[in-house]
Amino acid sequence: MATHRVGKIYVELDLDKTRYMRSQQTLLKESQDGAKILEKNFKNLGIKSGATFDLMRAQAEQSFQAIKRSGQTTANDLIRAEKAKNDQLKRLNDEQFGHQESMLKKLKSNWLGVTAAVVGAYIAINKAVDVAQKYIKAASDVDPASGGGAG
Question: 14-28, pLDDT tens digit by residue?
Fold first, then answer.
């Protein structure tokens, strides 16, 4: 280690916060703009997806109508075409919206859980009402003139 001095070094610290705050505001604005752009793109994707499914539904209906208008179509052909159209529409709906189950079917399949939740809610509400009634009774028993003693 050296024991002799070479010179002095002076350091200037920039404690001005304006540049830092400006850069933070820029970062915030860019992140907000990025979120807005991302949200807009997801919305456009949903709109385009919906339009695509609507177009496929229209094509299935047009195909059925073409078969129906054909002069050589028999009754069996119409039945098969109607069934094919309905199957295609159901498949498209399931693909776009997912398989939809009625609320009643969901309750029926999960009746034990639903029953437990209803009973639990009933017990919790009764307990809350009992506690509230005790506090109300205790408050009404307090005599304000005597400084808090029972009346």
Answer: 777 888 788 888 888
